[in-house]
Design a protein that fits this description.
alpha/beta; FAD/NAD(P)-binding domain; binds flavin-adenine dinucleotide; globular
Length: 268
């Protein structure tokens, strides 16, 4: 059991992990690869204090190595669900599971927002987790809207489970169609029938990961100490709202970690 579990390896998550590790907490950080962070494609960052002109990739590589050198366990994978287990929080990573006494969400944001029909059919044919729900579609046709680098791997996993897969990776205008449950995907006006839809994004919406988490206009609602409405759960970075900026993400990560440490030291 970790003292602090962090989901999301961007500037907010690395900053939180470094602060918590320096406060002598055992820390694990679960994340998709750094290529999925919003800042990764940026060739030049000019406004991060002390590092003018650094690329997003180099910044992330440096943060990752600095975090690793402090003894933080870096777990590469997609967190598919987080759950409150009373005195701890459990996080599912594919078919693996890990537990922490406090949880910090640093999942970034999906600037495109939800796809039409996504919220409506969530749990009724729409899923974010191949490992959790793939078996329900054995012998059936599923659409995978795969906007991350692991899309082909996840699609293959569904094929191995016996599904027929229609894989969509291009950017464009998507909608999920159906009556009482998802029955098709419309892409740029052309509809493909299916029995289920898996949506794979770099960033998970907070309330799709953890039930009961209060949101505000699509972001995780936090106070100035980065506390969410759930005891023991903190959030930092783009997932808490604008401005979407590196310095804000790193600063909030620091505050979230200090709040999580205080929570643990006060007896959880
Ligand atoms: C093209 C571009 C250029 C930018 N340039 C600048 C700039 O010059 N200066 C500036 O200040 N800001 C810039 N920004 C904004 C900046 O990138 C963000 O504010 C910053 O990256 C936010 O950090 P974060 O840690 O909150 O989220 P992110 O950096 O997005 O990191 C979140 C990480 O968590 C992972 N994750 C999410 N959900 C899960 C899950 N369920 N399981 C596992 N992993 C998960 C994601 O895949 C990602 O790796 C730019 C943004 C873009 C898109």
């Amino acid at each position: 059991m970790w003292d602090i579990l962090i989901i999301g390896g961007g500037p907010a998550g690395y900053s939180a992990a470094m602060t918590a590790a320096r406060r002598k907490k055992s820390v694990a950080l679960v994340s998709l690869p750094i290529e999925e962070s919003a800042i990764y494609p940026s060739h030049r960052v000019e406004n991060y204090p002390g590092l003018p002109g650094i690329s997003g990739r180099e910044l992330l590589e440096r943060m990752r190595e600095q975090t690793r050198s402090l003894g933080v366990e870096l777990i590469e994978g997609r967190a598919t669900a987080a759950m409150d287990m009373g005195k701890s929080f459990g996080v599912a990573i594919g078919s693996d599971f890990t537990e922490g006494k406090a949880l910090i969400l640093c999942t970034g944001t999906d600037r495109a927002g939800p796809i039409a029909g996504e919220r409506e059919f969530l749990g009724r044919g729409v899923s974010y987790c191949v490992t959790c729900d793939g078996m329900f579609y054995r012998g059936k046709t599923v659409a995978v809207l795969g906007f991350t680098k692991d899309a082909e791997t996840e699609a293959q996993l569904l094929r191995d489970m016996g599904c027929t897969v229609k894989l969509f990776t291009k950017k464009g205008s998507y909608a999920i169609t159906g009556e009482s449950r998802a029955e098709g995907v419309s892409f740029n006006g052309e509809t493909t029938g299916c029995d289920g839809v898996f949506i794979l994004r770099a960033s998970s919406a907070g309330d799709s990961l953890l039930g009961g988490l209060a949101m505000s206009e699509g972001h995780i609602a936090v106070d100035r100490q980065q506390c969410t409405n759930l005891r023991g759960v903190f959030a930092a970075g783009d997932c808490t709202g604008e401005p979407y900026q590196l310095a804000k993400a790193a600063g909030e990560g620091n505050v979230a970690a200090l709040s999580a440490c205080r929570y643990l030291e006060e007896g959880a």
